[in-house]
Design a protein that fits this description.
Layout: E1 16-20, H1 25-36, E2 40-45, H2 48-52, E3 69-72, E4 91-94, H3 108-123, E5 129-133, H4 145-160, E6 163-169, H5 173-184, E7 188-191, E8 197-198, H6 203-215, E9 220-223, E10 229-230, H7 231-242, E11 248-251, H8 253-266, H9 268-280, H10 295-302
Parallel strand pairs: 1-2, 1-4, 2-3, 4-5, 5-6, 6-9, 7-11
Antiparallel strand pairs: 8-10
Length: 303
């Protein structure tokens, strides 16, 4: 336990936190950030192996000796969560949501119901505060299934009687890593004309924002990184870091939406994800600068 800590009370009396979503890009950073600040950390996971190995796009590994307790369970199955909030637990953090999962579950089952199950556990225990990661600009994409699921969680938290903090990031560096991967293959695909602007944030910076939210009083915390860029500028930056000539292919919105609908016929989950990606390609998403790590330095690390 670190001698210096800003929120964990101290080595002899640490605050206790459950980190749900600890195998995801953000969750891995958050588990480390809570621990570094002196918290006693319990990580909820379906797989110890997924915790122990590094995640994609620089997400750190979580070796068993780097946190205090591992709880094996599935947030979508409440019967597996018995005892998760025993301790007592002061804070529950959740970044649970569908990203690249391939298990056939829907946004309703994962992004909403899994988090609803955690809220119910908190309401039946002595948990003081729930920190939940949603999205910035939800009002611009309110018709999407992923947005509806996230905002239902927000509404449930507001009515729960728990203290809560909703963290709304403008975007993740992990998604920008996918752009660099395309650039490595020689061509970046953009949805729309690529002029929409946003400022994604590194997982480590966002983790600090999340722990600050757990310790603060603000019910809603918006966050972005230090660089405000358009989609096209992100692609150009990726090619520049790689030292390769830029090749960008623009996918018209009308075609992208048609493709998303077709994908939805074959697989509802991937169709919903595709529609989210397409819609994100036409709206701006700029949050307050709460990051230190630049996108160029991140691309250089990945490259």
């Amino acid at each position: 336990m670190p001698e210096e800590n800003r929120g964990g009370l101290g080595a002899d009396n640490p605050k206790h936190v459950v980190v749900a979503g600890a195998t995801g890009y953000l969750g891995k950073f958050v588990a480390h950030e809570f621990k570094n600040r002196g918290y006693w950390v319990r990580a909820l996971t379906r797989s110890v192996a997924s915790l122990e190995k590094p995640g994609p796009f620089t997400a750190p590994a979580i070796p068993p000796d780097s946190i205090d307790e591992i709880f094996i369970g599935e947030a979508t199955k409440p019967e597996t969560l018995k005892g998760l909030c025993e301790g007592p637990i002061d804070v529950v953090f959740s970044s649970i949501g569908i990203s690249r999962q391939r298990d056939g579950l829907t946004f309703e089952q994962v992004d909403y119901q899994a988090n609803r199950n955690l809220i119910d556990l908190c309401c039946d225990s002595d948990v003081r505060k729930f920190v939940y990661v949603s999205m910035l600009g939800a009002e611009q994409i309110a018709d999407l299934e992923i947005t509806k699921a996230h905002e239902r969680v927000v509404n449930d938290l507001e009515r729960s009687g728990l203290e809560y903090a909703i963290v709304r990031p403008s975007g993740y560096f992990s998604d920008m890593g996918a752009v660099l991967d395309m650039a490595k293959r020689g061509r970046v695909l953009l949805v729309g004309d690529g002029t929409n602007r946003f400022n994604p944030i590194h997982g480590a910076d966002l983790a600090a924002v999340c722990v600050d939210a757990a310790e603060g009083d603000d019910p809603v915390v918006e966050a972005g990184g230090p660089d405000i860029l358009s989609q096209r500028e992100v692609a150009e930056l990726a090619f520049d870091v790689l030292g390769k000539p830029g090749k960008v292919t623009v996918i018209p919105l009308w075609f992208a939406y048609g493709l998303a609908r077709f994908i939805g016929v074959l697989n509802r989950q991937f169709g919903d994800l595709a529609k989210f990606i397409v819609t994100a390609g036409e709206v701006d998403g700029v949050g307050p600068d709460r990051g230190k790590i630049t996108l160029r330095s991140y691309f250089e690390e990945l490259a």
